[in-house]
Every structure is written in C-alpha cells, then in structure tokens.
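So, can you check this one?
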Amino acid sequence: MATVLFVCTGNLCRSPMAAALLRARLAQDPARRGWQVLSAGVWTEDGLVASSGAVAAMAERGVDLGGHRSRRVTERLVQEADLILGMTPHHVEALRLAFPQATDRIRLLAEMAGESHGVADPYGLSLAEYRATASELARLIEAGYERIVALAERDR
C-alpha cells in the first residue's frame, strides 16, 4: 500500500480537500483501494478543524471534512510517505529544505498534470473561491492521476 501526503500552509483548506479528492478517486480504482492519503501543513497548529468554506465546498461534492483536524508536517509523516505533494512552489521548497532526504519524493501537485503553478489559498475568502479551489484540485488530481500513481508506486 502506498502513502500520499498533501501539504499546504495551515492544513485547513487545500491539503485536506486534495486528500479527500484523491481518496475518492482511489476508491474507484480497485487495485489501489488500500492506499493511505494524508494531509499536513508547514505552518499550523495540531487539532484545528477545516475551514468552514472547505467543509461547505466539499459537502457539495458529497465529501465530509467535518472530522478533519490539522497537523503539522513531521519527520515521521515525511518518512512514511511514498509521494509528497505541495500546493505551491513555496511549500515544495520549504519541504525540500526541511527534509532533504525526501527531496526526490516531494513534488508540486500541478506538476502531476504537466503544469507548473501553485494552487491559491482560499482561506477566509468566499464560498465561490473555495468551490473554485475544489474544482482546480479535482482537475489536477484527475489529470495527474496516472503520474501520482506511478510516482507513489515507483519504489514498491
């Protein structure tokens, strides 16, 4: 079983949304149903609930983020992850500096879809912005699914 870790800043919006979306996509793939998909933040406190906008936007997609609690990215999480996907180039850079031993497993989410941009943080913005972020994350995960799978499975 592979483990994918999504990382953003506060682990309140983007990374929990992305993790939930990848879990939903993996549920459609019988060969990969046992995968673990986690999320964390580079600058957060442990135990915070997901933002209300993220909860609402994902509920519209039939996904419950009500049980999500934030956590800071740790050495253990990084060690156990087969693939670590940052939301922005800044997250990727911060992770590579903090965890140089994992550099080859740290990538930009958009890179999975052949793109090179960050996913904007909707924190504190309108529900429409959260919906747009959820749509962008879903698009990137679907377009990059085969690459995500290939990279997560490469050393297994």
The CA atoms of residues 3 and 81 lie 5 Å apart.
